[in-house]
Design brief:
Strands 1-2 form a two-stranded antiparallel ribbon. The protein is mainly alpha-helical and 142 residues long. A hairpin with a 5-residue loop joins strand 1 and strand 2.
Length: 142
């Protein structure tokens, strides 16, 4: 099991933006254009633009138009977790699809969750809790 390629790319993009913010002494003033982000992260430009739109919609990145435009983080590094990025890109995390609201699970005749659903729910919460603690201020190398 592994995260999707899109989430991997999104984490790389946030890491690049965070590295730039650290380099600028957390001023968050500098923008990086999409082409530079694509080169630094080795994410194809078209895919980088798609992910950047999601990160902008998710409220952790802001885009600026014009000659000196680009993208920059608008949240503090300590406020952005790996889970935040995953959720913006993929939606809410569930260890198993049986935990998803749009999945019809007929695992128990009495209407109560089966033992597997309960176990998967516990794993889901453990993973979410761990990933929420992994913030970019701890992870980014300047």
């Amino acid at each position: 099991m592994h995260i999707t390629l899109e989430t991997d790319y999104a984490i790389r993009i946030v890491d690049a933006l965070a590295g730039e913010a650290i380099k600028e002494q957390n001023s968050f003033r500098s923008c990086i254009d999409a082409g530079t982000i694509s080169e630094r992260t080795e994410v194809p430009l078209r895919f980088a633009l798609k992910i950047l739109r999601k990160l902008v919609s998710g409220g952790i990145v802001k885009s600026y138009k014009g000659v000196y435009g680009g993208y920059r983080l608008i949240a503090e590094l300590s406020e952005i977790s790996i889970y935040d990025v995953m959720e913006i890109v993929e939606g809410e995390y569930h260890f198993s699809r049986c935990l998803s609201e749009d999945y019809s699970c007929n695992c128990s005749a009495d209407g109560l969750p089966c033992n597997y659903r309960q176990a998967f729910g516990e794993v889901t919460e453990m993973v979410k809790d761990y990933l929420k603690k992994q913030t970019f201020d701890k992870l980014v190398k300047p």
